[in-house]
Amino acid sequence: MLRQQLQTDQIQALKNHDKIKLETLRYVLSEIKNKEIEKNPPAGGELSDEDTLTALQKVSKRLEEAIVSFNKAKRQDLAKEYQDQLNIIKTYLPAKLTDEQLKKAVEKIKAENQETIQKNPKAIIGICMKQLRSKAEPKKIMKLLSQ
Predict the structure, then answer these.
(1) Which residues of the chain are under the pLDDT cut of 50?
(2) What pTM, to 2 d.p., does this model score?
(3) d(CA 125, CA 43)
(4) Which residues of 47-67 are buried (b: 16+ CB within 10 A; e: fewer)?
(5) CA of 127: how far to CAs of 10, 56, 64, 119, 145, in Å?
């Protein structure tokens, strides 16, 4: 469904002559297509929305790193271009949880999976990552779990 939305928006950007949005969506869709081929080599079937989100997050992270590099190199023109692309991609990503919301979500997951945690304390890491990966950065989740 997310991929279909991206494709629809790509067509709309083409019709509206929105060059930056069109380039960004083409890049994102090519990354998604590469993931599909990588995951299912013979047929290249469609990715689930979760896998598509993961691909979007990776592209977003790559752009953020590039923006930092361009700012260090004093290339404001390229930094602005990448920032515009990042803003377009962020419209498709779910809102990130605040630290307080993340803490509550982790506590809730711990309470719901108490038996599993008693048998295998490290199992909570996998459970939290699976449920919260799209809503928060894995580093933040790990930091909360290690406390």
Answers:
(1) none
(2) 0.72
(3) 33
(4) beeebbbbbbbebbeebeebb
(5) 35, 22, 27, 14, 11
